[in-house]
Specification:
Helix 1 crosses helix 3, helix 2 packs across helix 3 and helix 4 packs across helix 6. The radius of gyration is 15 Å and the shape is globular. By secondary structure, the chain is mostly helical. The protein is built from 6 helices and no strands.
């Protein structure tokens, strides 16, 4: 197995861990990504298929993490980055896009605040 396969397995495992910790099933994530069924998500999670950048970006937004976090060996670090808590049983399909958009805004705000702090900029 080459390093490319190992990378796909790592990313897929991280997607699975995050999905399960959030209480989402594969079909819900597949629907959010615009896929026909959950089979492709299953392939992604097992590392049997590379995940297209567009899907990686949407997955990172859904879970409120950076793209680089999907390559992390420590999924606990990723979960610390999550800011949004919710009850899964109250979600509807349209809520996945709202959650992802909220997480994207929070990530960008956090980056901005970190830059301000790093460069000692007073707002």
């Amino acid at each position: 197995m080459d390093s490319k396969d190992t990378k796909y397995i790592k990313i897929g495992n991280n997607v699975k861990v995050l999905r399960e910790r959030c209480g989402f099933n594969q079909l819900e994530v597949a629907n959010y990504l615009g896929l026909k069924d959950h089979v492709t998500i299953s392939y992604y999670e097992r590392g049997e298929r590379p995940i297209p950048f567009e899907h990686l970006s949407k997955i990172a937004d859904l879970f409120g993490i950076e793209l680089a976090d999907l390559l992390s060996d420590n999924t606990e670090v990723q979960l610390v980055n999550r800011v949004f808590a919710f009850r899964k049983d109250e979600l509807q399909e349209k809520d996945f896009s709202t959650i992802a958009e909220f997480n994207r805004i929070v990530k960008n705000y956090t980056k901005l605040k970190n830059l301000e702090k790093k460069h000692d900029i007073k707002a």
